[in-house]
């Protein structure tokens, strides 16, 4: 396993935010974490990208406890798109994307030609090349989100941790991002709200409720009407996409508003 969470627990103010979470993500797999608001998805991801120190348990990168690695060392392997990235400075898009190289660059060494091309390629891939000279402070929510994904890519990580990566993205950019993730070969751990996108992109899905893991498995194993009713309190009908066979959830709005 490239990434493993082992009995990961986080407590704050005497309350367990996540409790003894176990999760394995294989090399090149896309693992989704779903669950209601406040169920602990971001908390678990924060432990993986080391914004938060677990109270107990561990995150293992290829078997090594992350806490045994220097921050800079783990940042060469794990890049994150977070929900906390609001405090940007008045940098251009190109500068922000270039910051993704920070774990690889000693001192003030300027980026070399390969790294500059890497940045340009990531900006093209995320459809933000035309914004290269713009201040990030002037971007729309979706543009900023795509810039932050480009920054994570130039980090050349093995593992991408994505907290709500499709936040703010229009439908075209959501699909572009998810099909990129499917083809990029990176190991991905993503918190997702959109269960249909999770079904379409994830190899495995972990379901959290109140800080505890309540199910893991393939989308077909996990995304059942029973589980979704139980965890989210919502009625769904499950159908197969007529062409791709992918699992699609149709929300029963009448059922949801009854009772
Ligand atoms: N530093 C903290 N101190 C106290 N409680 C916290 C702290 N950080 C998070 N929490 C609480 O922990 C719980 C889990 O939060 P978390 O952000 O992990 O949930 P989430 O599943 O990502 O939710 P959402 O879907 O709303 O993004 C929430 O109830 C949140 O209020």
Automatic annotation (TrEMBL):
Residues 3-235 form the ABC transporter domain. The keyword Lipoprotein does not apply. Signal peptide: none annotated. Keywords: ATP-binding, Nucleotide-binding. GO terms for molecular function: ATP binding. The keyword ATP-binding applies. It comes from the Bacteria. CDD domains: ABC_Iron-Siderophores_B12_Hemin. This is ABC transporter ATP-binding protein. It comes from Nonomuraea antimicrobica.
């Amino acid at each position: 396993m490239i990434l493993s969470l082992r009995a990961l627990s986080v407590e704050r103010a005497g309350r367990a935010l996540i409790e003894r979470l176990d999760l394995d993500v294989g090399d090149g797999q896309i693992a989704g974490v779903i669950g209601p608001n406040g169920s602990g998805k971001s908390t678990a991801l924060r432990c993986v990208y080391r914004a938060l120190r677990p109270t107990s348990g561990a995150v293992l990168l290829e078997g090594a406890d992350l806490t045994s690695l220097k921050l800079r060392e783990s940042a060469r392997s794990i890049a994150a798109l977070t929900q906390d990235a609001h405090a940007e400075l008045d940098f251009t898009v190109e500068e922000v994307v270039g910051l993704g190289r920070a774990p690889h660059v000693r001192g003030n060494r300027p980026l070399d030609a390969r790294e500059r091309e890497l940045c340009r390629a990531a900006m093209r891939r995320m459809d933000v090349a035309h914004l290269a000279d713009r201040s990030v402070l002037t971007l729309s929510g979706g543009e900023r989100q795509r810039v932050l994904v480009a920054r994570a890519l130039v980090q050349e990580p093995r593992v991408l941790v994505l907290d709500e990566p499709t936040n703010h993205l229009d439908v075209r950019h959501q699909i572009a991002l998810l099909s990129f993730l499917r083809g990029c070969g990176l190991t991905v751990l993503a918190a997702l709200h959109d269960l249909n996108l999770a079904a379409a992109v994830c190899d495995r899905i972990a379901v959290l409720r109140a800080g505890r893991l309540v199910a893991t498995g393939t989308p077909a194993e996990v995304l059942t009407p029973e589980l979704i009713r139980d965890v989210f309190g919502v009625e769904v009908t499950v159908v197969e996409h007529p062409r791709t066979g992918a699992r699609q959830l149709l929300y029963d709005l009448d059922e949801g508003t009854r009772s």
